[in-house]
Amino acid sequence: MPDASSPAPLVEVRGVNKYFGEHHVLKDIDMEVARGEVVIVIGPSGSGKSTLCRAINRLETINSGDIIIDGQRLPDEGKALARLRSEVGMVFQAFNLFAHKTVLENVTLAPIQVKKIPKAKAVERAMELLTRVGVEAHANKLPSQLSGGQQQRVAIARTLAMDPKLMLLDEPTSALDPEMINEVLDVMIALAQSGMTMIVVTHEMGFARKAADRVVFMADGAIVEEAPPETFFTDPSSDRAKDFLSKILH
Ligand SMILES: Nc1ncnc2c1ncn2[C@@H]1O[C@H](COP(=O)(O)OP(=O)(O)O)[C@@H](O)[C@H]1O
Ligand SMILES: [Mg+2]
């Protein structure tokens, strides 16, 4: 739940516009995420959800507006950007693990190379995180020896190893076989309950209902509606949301 005692939101997106050529893909996006808040971003394919996540992490530049994380405006480039970016953990649909490195190496690589954490300490912390996501028994295997659900849990552990202030998860379960979705959602629910600030692009209503504070519905590059999950899923106010929900619910 949001921490009401903290003054500023952790994430402030103000009047953000983004074009790909002539195509206006983010239209005056305003969004705030409080510390400890879990926000679900939902909407039709092509509505700009991934672009918004990527913009928040500066994997994508913006044409106008401001993105402020923990009181700091995201710089365009350089060391300051690298530092701010390391404070935002991102988990993608494709797990993006290094195929030729073991699970343990995948989780310790950035802490050792980027954060200069001594190897023994990085390994100890990695094993804690792998235990937390339930894949510690596979630490010395290569990603290809794990199931998709296990690989995505490793990807989450790898992100957590950098101690991010914010986690962005972009459709983290949509590439998984159905029987593996819940094991990843359970890890995400536990993470949400631990107080992590999260922005999650997902259509998983079970996760939304259990773990989300707020649903942000996007269509055609704009935020159309925001509501608590129960309200959004049972009584959406916009026609766009009603139409979208009727499609994903049937
Ligand atoms: N690198 C890119 N170059 C050009 N157009 C892009 C690029 N990435 C995304 N788009 C377009 O921007 C729009 C929003 O895409 P995206 O953010 O991926 O939507 P979503 O994640 O909601 O499916 C889509 O029309 C998509 O085709
Ligand atoms: Mg997307």
From TrEMBL:
Topological category with respect to the lipid bilayer: Peripheral membrane protein
EC number: 7.4.2.1
Broad class of enzyme this protein falls into: translocase
InterPro entries in alphabetical order: AAA+_ATPase, ABC_ATPase_HisP-typ, ABC_transporter-like_ATP-bd, ABC_transporter-like_CS, MetN_ABC_transporter-like, P-loop_NTPase
Compartments reported by the entry: Cell membrane
Reaction equation(s) it catalyzes: a polar amino acid(out) + ATP + H2O = a polar amino acid(in) + ADP + phosphate + H(+)
Domain ABC transporter: 11-245
GO terms assigned for molecular function: ATP binding; ATP hydrolysis activity; ATPase-coupled polar amino acid-transporter activity
PANTHER family, per the entry: AMINO ACID IMPORT ATP-BINDING PROTEIN, GLUTAMATE_ASPARTATE IMPORT ATP-BINDING PROTEIN GLTL
Record-given protein name: ABC-type polar-amino-acid transporter
